[in-house]
Design brief:
single chain, alpha/beta, seven-stranded mixed β-sheet, elongated, binds acetamide, binds zinc ion
Length: 511
């Protein structure tokens, strides 16, 4: 039931039963957790009003529990909750979060946090019974740290906000033409050379340059820290190492990876570059395997994103090595050469127990077996891939590109790449188009993308991501039949104090 007194939870839970009454959270309210829920309880302690200036302690579960406590438990017998579901029960005498898994407990704890609201307030929980589980298992947010670099504390704040809205997949776009951002021990020039570009186009006049060097990368230690921080919050970090296009920073670092073998620099302009990794020479694959070995060490994610988008083929056409590869592998041409490239990488990842994810261009020339497709040029690529028996993440630029303008009055907005994607349009997204009704299970989720060519600063990222990420979170979590734009707007309004208390630089919305 979703009645008048339904608490303002985003994303809207599957089942909410309200009744009159409240449970006050006082200095005496104890926090209790079983072993598997202790990490969630420690997070919760930081979100509740402090006691004597300190986060309240977490105690172990005991049968003789006092009334008036908040209890977090993991119960594998609750198969109905599956991997990520939870039950939350609040009575005047206490509150309990139950999940079948740690992740389920984490999401239930985030719902509890939303009921609590800003930490600074004296908190009172409404009496409520919630049973909840997600519609999709990939609920993603992407951030491009190649075009502009964002340091670890900012990434951690973004992960906090993702978790608050039950987004569980952070797609970290670590490499591109304009910068290589992850330390690779065996290939030090990637960050010595590839992490620095000489200049950046001006946001308000992309034909002109700022003339100022721009640099930054994450050390292995920092990457480990981000991955661990995300995992504590139930978020998986999916790294993206772009290939064979969007690789100019790698070519500048190791020119022997390109078809001409010299003359590359880290790009100082935006757009699609013709210089790409040579698909003919074995040195390219030795390089990629060395890089990915280290990436797999750092990222436990079952999915590894290898890009695959926007790879012009003219350098390959002019390259003797690439032509020899086409002949030797009996390929029909350059599109099939890209396919062959992706199949090779997919096989290499599969041998190590990982799945390849790529942008929808990886369909061209034939999909690698087992590849997951991220559909960005609309949903058509996703439809074709799902029909062919592949898993799909829907991230179409029509509904999921958070670098697009949020208003038609572009003069009143900070400069953006273009487009028009208001909050309401994100909310209206249906990830399973009618054409896929028979293959609905192939759509494993949705994702919002934040490309940062025109987003140089941290608060600007938040301005582009919020509140659109909340709309996306509801698309990703809530059953389609329960979604309503009016209901969402009402609940969204109630989130303003929490977002304000968290210092989120969201774009103000009206209604
Ligand atoms: C993309 O937006 N080039 C995936
Ligand atoms: Zn070549």
């Amino acid at each position: 039931m979703h009645g008048m007194n339904t608490p303002a939870i985003v994303p809207l839970p599957v089942a909410v039963d309200t009744a009159s009454g409240t449970m006050p959270i006082t200095a005496d309210t104890a926090l209790r957790a079983d072993r598997d829920s202790a990490a969630a309880a420690r997070l919760l302690a930081g979100w509740l009003p402090p006691v004597d200036g300190q986060p309240r302690p977490v105690s172990a579960l005991r049968p003789s529990a006092r009334a008036g406590s908040i209890t977090l438990t993991t119960d594998a017998a609750r198969a109905d909750l599956r991997d990520e579901g939870y039950a939350l029960s609040v009575t005047p005498r206490g509150a309990t979060v139950t999940g079948a898994t740690q992740r389920g407990v984490l999401w239930g704890t985030q719902t509890l946090r939303q009921l609590v609201g800003p930490r600074e307030r004296a908190a009172t929980l409404p009496v409520v019974e919630i049973v909840d589980r997600p519609r999709f298992r990939w609920r993603g947010l992407h951030l491009d740290v190649a075009r502009h670099f964002f340091p670890v504390p900012f990434i951690e704040r973004l992960l906090d906000l993702m978790a608050l809205y039950k987004l569980n997949t952070f797609h970290w776009h670590l490499t591109d033409d304009q910068g290589w951002r992850i330390e690779i021990r065996s290939r030090p020039r990637l960050t010595e050379v590839g992490a620095r570009r000489a200049a950046t186009p001006l946001p308000h006049d992309r034909t002109r340059s700022d003339g100022t060097p721009c640099a930054g990368h994450y050390t292995r230690e920092e990457v480990r820290r981000v991955v661990a921080y995300a995992a504590e919050r139930g978020v998986t970090v999916v790294p993206e190492i772009e290939m064979p296009g969007h690789s100019q920073a790698a070519l500048a670092s190791y020119p022997e990876l390109g078809c001409t073998g010299s003359g590359y620099e880290v790009a100082t302009t935006w757009g699609i570059k013709n210089d790409v990794l040579c698909a003919g020479r074995e040195t390219t694959f030795a390089f990629l395997e060395e890089v990915l070995e280290e990436v797999l060490e750092l990222f436990p994610s079952p999915y590894i994103h290898v890009g695959g988008d926007e790879c012009p083929k003219q350098a390959w056409r002019a390259c003797a090595h690439c032509r020899a590869r086409i002949a030797h592998e009996q390929l029909a041409g350059e599109d099939e050469l890209q396919s062959w490239f992706m199949r090779r990488m997919s096989g290499w990842l599969a041998d190590r127990g990982r799945h390849l994810v790529g942008w929808d261009e990886i369909l061209e020339g034939g999909l690698a077996p087992g590849a997951t497709v991220m559909s960005w040029r609309g949903s058509a690529g996703g439809v074709a891939a799902a029909r062919a028996g592949h898993d799909v993440v829907m991230s179409p630029n029509t509904h999921c590109y958070f670098d697009y303008y949020q208003s038609e009055d572009t003069a009143a907005e900070p400069p953006a790449i273009g487009g028009h994607l208001p909050l309401e349009r994100v909310y209206s997204f249906e990830p399973v188009p009618p054409a896929l009704a028979a293959h609905a299970g192939r759509v494993i989720g949705v994702q919002g993308n934040i490309w940062t060519e025109y987003i140089p600063g941290e608060s600007h990222v938040q301005y582009m991501a919020f509140p659109r990420a909340l709309a996306l979170a509801e698309v990703a979590w809530t059953p389609a039949e329960l979604r309503s734009p009016a209901g969402f707007h009402e609940r969204l309004a109630a989130h303003r104090p929490l977002l304000d208390a968290l210092g989120v630089h969201y774009r103000p919305w009206s209604r």
